[in-house]
Amino acid sequence: MTEPLLSVKKLSVILEGRTIIRDLSFEVRRADCVAIIGPNGAGKTVLLKALLGIVPHQGEIRWSHEARLGYVPQKIAADRHLPLSARDLLAAKARFLKLPGAEIEQVSTELGLTNDLLSTSIGTLSGGQFQKVLIAFALLGRPNVLLFDEPTASLDELTEERIYELLQSLQKKRGLTVLLVSHDLSVVYRSANMVLCLSKGKPCMGPPKEILTPAMLQELYAGPSQYYQHIHKHEQLSHDSRERE
Amino acid sequence: MLREQVPLLVLAMFFALAAGLVGGIALMKRMLLAGDVISHLALPGLGLAFLYKVNPVIGGAATLFLGTFLVWQLEKKSGLAIEAAIGVIFAAALAIGAAVIPNEDLAESLFGELPRISPVGFFLGMAAVLFVILSVFLLKDQLSLSIFSPDLAAATGVNVSRLDLYFLLLFSLTVLVGLRFMGALLASALIIVPAATSRQLTNKLSHFFLLSASASLFSVTTGFLLNVLVLKFTTAGPTIAILSAALFCLSLLVRTR
Hints:
The complex is a heterodimer. By secondary structure, chain A is of the alpha/beta class. Chain A has a domain of 170 residues: Rossmann fold (3-Layer(aba) Sandwich), CATH 3.40.50.300. Helix content of chain A is 42%, strand content 22%. The longest helix of chain A is centred in the last third of the chain and has 19 residues. Chain B starts with a helix and ends with a helix. The model of chain B has no long low-confidence stretch (mean pLDDT 80). Chains A and B meet through α2 of A and α7 and α8 of B.
């Protein structure tokens, strides 16, 4: 059996005296797309930060030696007055990590970031453009693992759809392993092959069909499930479209 | 008169470049006013130095760096915003400063003087400003990343907490060099105003730093010469600060953003 890309054992994170994550263990294989779900305050964002090594934690987080991480944070409230263009931001990372300058052009072309957009002040970009810049930022340095923290929060549905299409095509093209925090269970159902459920009770992990059951969602969100209905509707739509084909 | 002042003018010009660059970063971090207050952390040290007849630069440096370190610790440990942390330390520093500075030295502490600078003072001052300029140049990318998003910067490998302390120390070092000829009240004028002027004129990062340093250099050189050759005040600080503010007013007329 091959070594997992990521192995987490008995991970606990305590911030300002509050236990956010307690005794969490799971594994991620190469090219998996793992969706991390759970109610607000369950520690999804903190888990990503612990995996990135930017919050203190106890327990073991072991990345395989070949893992190179890219990170797309939750929507950043960029200061409109910052004299920083998208190109400045990408160039700052490229210089700091001593990456070849050509990589900026390559990633920008791949994501359809035009010269005009790259020269625009970062605080004045639209939500969708801004997310694309963050994805481009994450892709610099040729990561093989991407950690996405609600990459489409506060975006309209059309833009959200485009961003997820982009993620899926990137994952296929680059053979990326993805860890995705999302509140949108229809997206989870569509994109992920594994779901990690963080709840106040016992966390669990498995394929979406096993995890996203009405009973589990009831327990997870302590309320019935508009999520389940949403998924059900999505499944119905997928079914209808398959029928039409 | 001018000949005697040449070393001080050269030091002031390099100080101006450092102040323009440090001010640019401080503006991006939204800590310009907080930075203004940092310069007052030198006051208790200046007061004690006057009292015990020690070199004022040594006294000022001691409390400036101690205060800076306390600000960093307070921000880190208490979770206070940087301006709140600076506000707390500032209130204490100002009170102690006012209590211990002898009345006859108060104006000099607040507004500076035109001292004759010793060769050692000149070389130490030059070493300090060159160190600041080089550091800002080398840390520009890390600072940009951490200002944009501390999390993203940390995930990229930047040690954000250490960088914050390093920047506060660079800021204090710059203030310290400017303290003698600008005074505690006006030393930070050259850090704040040129950066604000430059921000009116460009959105591009490299132009922003270049314009900020240029505006600072222009204010210092012109203000210094004007004072030595025409006005002959005991300190060039106010002339330099007024010129800097005038440049800012001009920038409002030609702003591009």
